[in-house]
Amino acid sequence: MLRVVLVNPLIPPNTGNIARTCAATGTELHLVGPLGFEISDRYLKRAGLDYWPYVNLHCHDSLEDFQALHRLQGGRWIGFSTSGSCSYIKFQFQAGDWLLFGSETTGLPKQVLDACDATVHIPMSEPGVRSLNLSVSAAVGIFEARRQLGYLG
């Protein structure tokens, strides 16, 4: 089972959009605090529309809390970062992977990147564009992993 992890997300509509994508694909969503908003934020709820009952949502107060869960469940940490060492297209995803994404302003913290089993990036054709929107990046990662694993049929 694929899992998406947002580490310190800041913008409620991005998290809401990612939650909606997770609901549509049956992908677990883990939010690692501190968050830049309250879970009850109306923009978060609005972006997720009425799909929240379909989101398998897990909230962790800190990175340490999340790491404790990961130790119990296992699986690889795949960090999505502009400094990732491999294109996400060339990377071979596995069913137990955790797809990690950082905050909209700073990306994944160094300590998280260092703990990742692999880091991937989404190639950009225009060098002046640093990155995609967080919700777009998460959707790209989710659907490529699902494609590789044969989950799109």
How would you describe this structure to a colleague?
This protein is of the alpha/beta class and 153 residues long. It has helices at residues 12-25, 42-48, 63-73, 110-115, 134-148, and strands at 3-7, 28-32, 57-60, 77-80, 86-87, 98-101, 118-121. The longest helix has 15 residues, at 134-148.
In summary, what is this structure?
The protein has 153 residues and is an alpha/beta fold. The chain contains five helices and seven strands. The protein has helices at 12-25, 42-48, 63-73, 110-115, 134-148, and strands at residues 3-7, 28-32, 57-60, 77-80, 86-87, 98-101, 118-121.
Q: What are the defining features of this structure?
A:
single chain; alpha/beta; Alpha/beta knot; 5 helices; 7 strands; 18% strand; globular
Task: Break the fold down into its secondary structure elements and pairings.
Blueprint: E1 3-7, H1 12-25, E2 28-32, H2 42-48, E3 57-60, H3 63-73, E4 77-80, E5 86-87, E6 98-101, H4 110-115, E7 118-121, H5 134-148
Parallel strand pairs: 1-2, 1-6, 2-3, 4-6, 4-7, 5-7
Side-by-side strand order of the widest sheet: 3-2-1-6-4-7-5
Q: In which range does the helix fraction lie? A: 25-40%
Write down how many β-strands occur, each being a DSSP E stretch of 2 or more residues: 7
In CATH's first tier, which class applies? Alpha Beta
Strand content: 15-25%
Structural class: alpha/beta
Tell me the CATH architecture.
Answer: 3-Layer(aba) Sandwich
* Number of individual domains: 1
Mean pLDDT: 94
Please tell me what the overall shape is: globular
In CATH terms, the superfamily is: SPOUT methyltransferase, trefoil knot domain
CATH topology: Alpha/beta knot
| H/E topology pattern | EHEHEHEEEHEH
- In angstroms, what is the radius of gyration? 14 Å
What's the N-to-C terminus distance? 16 Å
Sequence stretches where pLDDT stays below 50 over 5 or more residues: none
Largest sheet, described in full? 7 strands, parallel
Give the count of helical stretches.
Answer: 5
